[in-house]
């Protein structure tokens, strides 16, 4: 079975794709939004458990109003067009982020679809919209301050208070469009993600390339900091000893 359960994608390169064709940036968003359902379908067919798509960041609020409005209207169109397909395919849909600036009508479409799909047990499809990784961390800290008062907070506590704890850590983060950065996406959850950067701008991304990336990454060895046990050399026992020693020294500090 594939170790890739949660895939997150930074869908980047729309504007440059359009500019390269002497068109306005928004045209790139229109083309970009038309391939989203293909990628969702591929993830679903491959049995990926969760797909999280970065559609609008907290930083994207600083873009021209016309571009922001296009992105809002594309989100609405996508939801109206794909609603039936999402439900028929047993997909649980959610939006992660702050929706304050969205038109009321779009907020209602989102809420309705979230409610209608909340008990579906297929692919967990999440749009990160109005999302920022730092905001999520700060919101998590503030919620924890309310809930955990009598002891130190653990990593497990923190993971439980994120926006959507049920998605778990990201196994594979893909960024299209040629840049190699995280741009404030899922900062906590990508701690041990495999990273894959492709030059392909989002409007040219395809099911085929997506599938090839998953297959390539599945063969990578994910070590999570450890190494395989070598003959006659028991790493785990050394590790246990080291842990024991360091917990002693911590207590004795
Ligand atoms: C990604 O494409 C979509 C959003 C950020 C909403 P861009 O609009 O960032 O496209 P480039 O990176 O400028 O080409
Ligand atoms: C990241 O792309 C955000 C989304 C894809 C929604 P940006 O184009 O906004 O990121 P930067 O500006 O290159 O870091
Ligand atoms: Mg960009």
Give structural notes.
By secondary structure, this protein is of the alpha/beta class. The protein has two domains: 6-222, Undecaprenyl pyrophosphate synthetase, CATH 3.40.1180.10; 225-253. Helices cover 45% and strands 13% of the residues. A six-stranded parallel beta sheet has the order 3-4-2-1-5-6, with helices on both faces. Helix 4 (65-88) packs parallel to helix 5 (104-117). 30% of the residues are buried. One 3-methylbut-3-enyl trihydrogen diphosphate is lined by residues 11-16, 56, 60, 71, 177.
Q: Percentage of helical residues?
A: 40-55%
Tally of helical segments: 9
Strand order of the largest sheet: 3-4-2-1-5-6
Overall morphology: globular
Distance between the termini: 45 Å
The biggest sheet, with number of strands, parallel, antiparallel or mixed sense and barrel status, is:
6 strands, parallel
Taking pLDDT < 50 over at least 5 consecutive residues as the criterion, the unreliable ranges are 247-253
How many DSSP-defined strands? 6
CATH topology-level name of the largest domain: Undecaprenyl pyrophosphate synthetase
| % residues in beta strands | 5-15%
Question: Are any ligands bound, and if so which?
Answer: 3-methylbut-3-enyl trihydrogen diphosphate, magnesium ion
Do you know the CATH architecture of the largest domain? 3-Layer(aba) Sandwich
The CATH homologous superfamily of the largest domain is named Decaprenyl diphosphate synthase-like
Q: What is the CATH C-level name of the largest domain?
A: Alpha Beta
Write down the Rg: 21 Å
């Amino acid at each position: 079975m594939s170790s890739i359960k949660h895939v997150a994608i930074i869908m980047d390169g729309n504007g440059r794709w359009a500019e390269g064709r002497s068109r306005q940036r928004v045209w790139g968003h229109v083309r970009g939004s038309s391939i989203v359902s293909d990628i969702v379908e591929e993830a679903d067919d491959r049995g990926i458990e969760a797909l999280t798509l970065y559609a609008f960041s907290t930083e994207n609020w600083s873009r021209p109003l016309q571009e922001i409005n296009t992105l809002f209207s594309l989100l609405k169109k996508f939801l109206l067009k794909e609603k039936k397909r999402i439900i028929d395919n047993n997909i649980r849909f959610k939006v992660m982020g702050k929706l304050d600036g969205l038109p009321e009508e779009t907020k209602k479409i989102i809420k309705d679809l979230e409610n209608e799909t909340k008990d579906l047990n297929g692919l967990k499809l999440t749009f990160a919209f109005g999302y920022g990784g730092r905001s999520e961390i700060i919101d998590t800290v503030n919620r924890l301050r309310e809930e955990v008062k009598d002891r130190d907070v653990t990593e497990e506590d923190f993971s439980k208070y994120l926006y959507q704890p049920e998605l778990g850590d990201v196994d594979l983060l893909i960024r299209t469009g040629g840049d190699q950065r995280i741009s404030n996406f899922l900062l906590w959850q990508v701690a041990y993600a495999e990273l894959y950067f492709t030059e392909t701008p989002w409007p040219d991304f395809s099911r085929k390339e997506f599938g090839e990336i998953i297959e390539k990454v599945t063969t990578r060895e994910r070590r999570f900091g450890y190494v395989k046990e070598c003959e006659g050399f028991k790493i785990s026992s050394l590790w246990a000893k080291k842990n024991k020693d360091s917990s002693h020294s911590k207590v004795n500090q």
